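Ticket reopened. Same input as before:
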Amino acid sequence: MRSREIRLKSRPHGAPGAENFELAEVEVPSPAAGEVQVRNRWMSVDPYMRSRMIDRPSYVPPFQIGKPLEGGAIGVVTTSASEDFTPGDLVLSMLGWREAFTAPAKHLTKLETHGLPEQAFLGAAGMPGLTAWVGLLKIAEAKAGDTVFVSGAAGAVGSVVCQIAKAKGCTVIGSAGGAEKLEFLREIGVDHGFDYRQEPDLAAALARVAPKGIDVYFDNVGGDHLEAAMTAARPFARFAICGAISQYNDLEAAPGPKNMFFVIGKRLKLQGFIVSDHLAETPHFLRDLSGWVRSGKMKWRETVDQGIEAAPGAFSKLFTGGNIGKMLVKLGD
Ligand SMILES: NC(=O)c1ccc[n+]([C@@H]2O[C@H](COP(=O)([O-])OP(=O)(O)OC[C@H]3O[C@@H](n4cnc5c(N)ncnc54)[C@H](OP(=O)(O)O)[C@@H]3O)[C@@H](O)[C@H]2O)c1
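Engineering reply: fixed in the latest deploy. New output:
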């Protein structure tokens, strides 16, 4: 079987562009004993992949120049030399950015969709959804009556955070870029949305929509958003520091929030987290999620680009705001 894959051609200097990627065609070997051959149907592009393009030690190793990229993917088994899989099985792997592959069976997870669309397991029912659930409920300990501010609110993680917070009885404030995203925030029940591009004085925007301040901040963006959230925080507010996408393409480290001293006077709790430390919570998260889906409290949107050659452009959209909800690439049936 032939497969096309996307390789890292060069490390991005600032925003990632087409010049950083190359498309290559390879022969996919037949599976040896214990291996499985898979044709991918969906692949995910995620902001954390930008960090893996930098050659430095981190919680995941950097991507290598000339090698295919990796990431979440859903595919179907075409040939199996493992007793654990049969042709036709739907599988989740970290072998995205390619149309097909052969890998040891231990690198695959059989996917039971429970009636949900399969690609939801790369979004609201997958890693981004678990990130939202862990960050909001375990790290920030959001509870009924809290005022919760979510940045990047119209994205894969943010839109799930907003809806979990509503399901838990919180008042929800969301920031996002552009009118279409604000309309989406209204559709998913966000109480107050604001467009951070139109209202660059974020502290003033927060004071307008949350005059009594915020109890929880779910940070997807960092930088100015974090600083404004510290100004808006009420005493003992809890911050789940999930991401800092406004800084991932920076060539030099940005200065920290200039109001850091609020952490002391307001007795704030800021905690970073990585979702992969919390995978054991997956069954609990999926039980909650299916309840919210059944009761109409959880919806999601996807932005889908077609074909492996579209993957670098889909990845770049994460940094220009070109996606609403989960950014996905469809790789054929
Ligand atoms: N800690 C963890 O384990 C973990 C796991 C998953 C994701 N994350 C983090 O969670 C965040 C969201 O990830 P996601 O997968 O859900 O992505 P996403 O929100 O679906 O997509 C990225 C969004 O970020 C916004 N953005 C890009 N540049 C920005 C800037 N300079 N200022 C403000 N907003 C900007 C854009 O929306 P706008 O149009 O609204 O600007 C864009 O659509 C990321 O920071 C990611 O790294 C962390």
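The pocket of NAP is lined by residues 46-48, 128, 131, 152, 154-158, 176-178, 181, 220-221, 242-243, 245-246, 273-275, 318-319, 321, 323, 327 (CB under 6 Å). The chain is about 25% helix and 25% strand. Please confirm and we'll close it.
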